[in-house]
Amino acid sequence: MKMEALAIIFSLSFALGVSAFFIILQGSDPLIGYVGLFRGAFGSAHNFLETLVKMGPLLFVGLGAAVSYKCSFWSIGFEGQLLAGAMAATWVGITFTGTTSLLVLPLVIVMSFLMGMLWAAIPALLKVRFQISEVITSLMMNYIILYFIQYLVLGPWTDPSFVMAASRLIDPSARILRLLSGTRLHGGFLIAVACIPLVYILLQKTSLGYEIKCVGANITASRYAGIPVRKIMIIAAAIGGGLAGLAGMGEVIGLHYRLRADISPGYGYTGILIALLGRSHPLGIALVSFLFAGLLNGSIVMQRVAEIPTALIPVIQSIIVLSVLAGEVLTLYRITIRRTK
Amino acid sequence: MEVALIAALLIGVLIATIRMATPILFASIGENLTELSGVINLGMEGTMAMGAAIAFITSYTTKNLVFGVLSAMAVGGLMGLIMAFMCITLRANQVVVGVTVTIFGGGLATYLYRVAFGFGATPHLIGFNVVKIPILSEIPIVGPILFEHYALTYLAIILTIAFHFLLSRTHWGLRIKATGENPKASDTAGLNIYVIRYSCVIIGAIIAAIGGSFLTTAYSEIFLPGIVAGRGWMGVAVVMLARWGFLKALGGSLLFGAAEAIQLRLQLQGFGIPPEFFQMSPYLIIILTLVLVARRMRPPQNLGVPYERGE
Questions:
Q1: pLDDT score of A339
Q2: Coil, strand, or helix at residue A264?
Q3: Can you list the domains of chain A with their CATH numbers?
Q4: What's the pLDDT at B309?
């Protein structure tokens, strides 16, 4: 764990170094930019809380991706599963009006989780039934749900009085409380944090978790050992999708109170990187999602003070992943370069 | 509707089909070559994004579209080099590296575009003109459908035929396929697995980057973040659909090109169906067609398996 933390810190410095090179080329000052980045992420109570607001969905997706990847189910459909969850939450929120949160909120959570599960189970089914690579199908599912939501927010669910294409507001009973008045930090963040030990217990302490890891490590051996490989893979994918669905739910019931097609600035993709960096370990994922939420949140200030486009952030994040991956291989195996005769 | 009008509409759709198929075809040629050598490159989407951005920026600043495409190729080669180094030399998980390279390329493309043009503006460039092939384009109906396209479209088709010939008729093709099927045996037979795989990954990425450059120098003349819109992934899907054949991949690309072209026309016509359902149709079709051909798919045996030279 200590080695891994060091690897991430080293890779972060490396990524910031490479990016500094880009920033100098564009004629800005990386130091001003990075100070802005840090201030924007953690520099004030307000900024710090905003970082936590962005950490919530990243944590959900990171944990979901971890469960999926532990089973070697290489889905990249978390963005779509997030949207599916957001859609389900909105449906509950605009359908069941005038009752109490005690009834509606549990329903919101269950429906969002189920919808995320369903959206992830389709590529999983196609993989175990037809051996179709989950990478492609899960990605295509992202586009399908995106356009479906665009249809909903322009069509049947639209709110014509809102400036952007968006659904009607969800009923107050479907909204989750804000943790501090005057800030945007909401109860969804607490649910995400609660999922850290839950995923840890699932993966480390239950037989299902053990079977997921077996299938992920060696599918043939698992089959011979009598593990229902297909079932386990679908379950792992579905749990991953359900967690991603909760990320979308949080954005609707805690933040926007309505559905929009642009509800996620790519949380579903960033979460993939987070799961890879956190070594699919819940605590590692918590730390990395905090770091990545900070990068995402701070980038707005970075752009303002040093004119460095926020699009640099995914570049920094992916360089971190690539250098951690490279470092991992270089330390695990000693690569020797030998001249061939 | 009059017959002439329907005919004109149909011809329009067919022309658009070939145009829309071009970037997908470039991606599929590159991916096919890469996969036959035994490496999956899932960074194609990001490589195309880089190609699109670099081609746009270079073309706009130098006022030379050919420079634009050439610089996109150079950057595509670099993206391929990253992929190759991570997957071949370091033997990292190819799916993981590919997805990361896609996020990297998408981010860097938008970053560079914003650095070049600032935050508010969407500059336009004057893109390539359509090249009418003399005599052939004079043929009624067939002429405008097949022989009035951008030079890059012709290039994609020439590359398809060239690679089909290279892979099925030459020693080079055999060597590449042997590397993907059984690297150990090929190594024993004296082939240099690393050189072959590095070359295929890098050349494949260069070809995909040309597909990206098509989007900004011919097809749309502007750059937008997310302009590739899944075409790199479609290219990967086409390779599976075509069962690693170049000519079949041309067919597959045309299929998705047609889905996009028809979708655009239907959106204009309406028919009372919300346009979003047409927009999602190409992605749905990909999943459905994959299900249809799944039983007959047989990928290269060592696809995605890093090769480690034993002693």
A1: 60
A2: coil
A3: 54-299 (1.10.3470)
A4: 79
pLDDT-flagged residues of chain A (< 70): 1-2, 332-341
Sign of CA dihedral A77, A81, A87, A91: positive
CB atoms closer than 10 angstroms to residue A18: 15
Residue B231 is part of a domain; what is its CATH number? 1.10.3470
Q: Report yes or no: B275 and B262 within 8 Å, Cβ to Cβ.
A: no
Angle between helices B275-293 and A101-130 (to 10 degrees): 40
- B18-44 pLDDT, tens digit each: 999 999 999 999 999 999 999 999 999
The nearest CA of chain A is from the CA of B111 a distance in Å of 5
Query: In A146-182, which positions are buried (b, 16+ CB within 10 angstroms) versus exposed (e)?
Result: bbbbbbbbbeebbbeeeeebbbbbbbebbbbeebeee
Q: A124, A73 in Cβ contact below 8 A?
A: yes
B183 part of a folded domain: yes
B292 touches chain A (CB under 8 A): no
Across the interface, whether the CB atoms of B230 and A147 are under 8 A apart is answered no
Which of A66-80, A104-118, B2-16, B91-105 has the lowest average pLDDT? B2-16
pLDDT at A336: 55
In chain A, whose CA is at the least distance from the CA of B278?
A147
Number of domains in chain B: 1
Residue B217, amino acid: T
What confidence tens digit (pLDDT) does each residue in B203-244 have? 999 999 999 999 999 988 899 998 999 999 999 999 998 989
ipTM of this complex prediction, to 2 decimal places:
0.91
Which of A182, A170, A146 lies closest to A97, judged by CA? Answer: A170
Q: Which residues of B268-304 are buried (b: 16+ CB within 10 A; e: fewer)?
A: eeeeeebbbebbbbbbbbbbebbeebbeebebbebbb
Q: What is the mean pLDDT of residues B146-157?
A: 92
Q: Is the pTM of this model over 0.80?
A: yes
> Within a domain: residue B248?
yes
**Residue B33 is which amino acid?**
L
Which whole number is the average pLDDT over B248-261?
92
Q: Is residue B135 part of a domain?
A: yes
Interchain CB contacts (distance < 8 Å): A and B: 131
Separation of alpha carbons A341 and A182, rounded Å:
71
A47 C-beta neighbours (distance < 10 Å), count: 18
Task: Chain B: give the shortest CA distance to residue A8, in Å.
Answer: 16
Is it the case that residue B197 has pLDDT exceeding 90? yes
Q: The domain containing residue B246 runs over which residues?
A: 10-296
Q: Which residues lie below 8 Å from residue A3, measured CB to CB, with a gap of 6+?
A: none
In 3D space, the residue among B199, B229, B222 whose CA is nearest the CA of residue B81 turns out to be B199
CA distance B286 to B241: 9
Residue B148 lies in a domain: yes
For chain B, what is the mean pLDDT?
91
pLDDT tens digit sequence for A184-198: 999 999 999 999 999
d(CA A60, CA A55): 9
Separation CA A263–CA B288 (nearest Å): 28
Of the pLDDT bands very low, low, confident and very high (cuts 50, 70, 90), residue B1 is: low
Distance of CA A235 to the CA centre of its chain: 19
Looking at chain B, which residue has its C-alpha nearest residue A151?
A: B276
Contact between B115 and A309 using a beta-carbon 8 Å cutoff: yes
Mean pLDDT across B251-259? 91
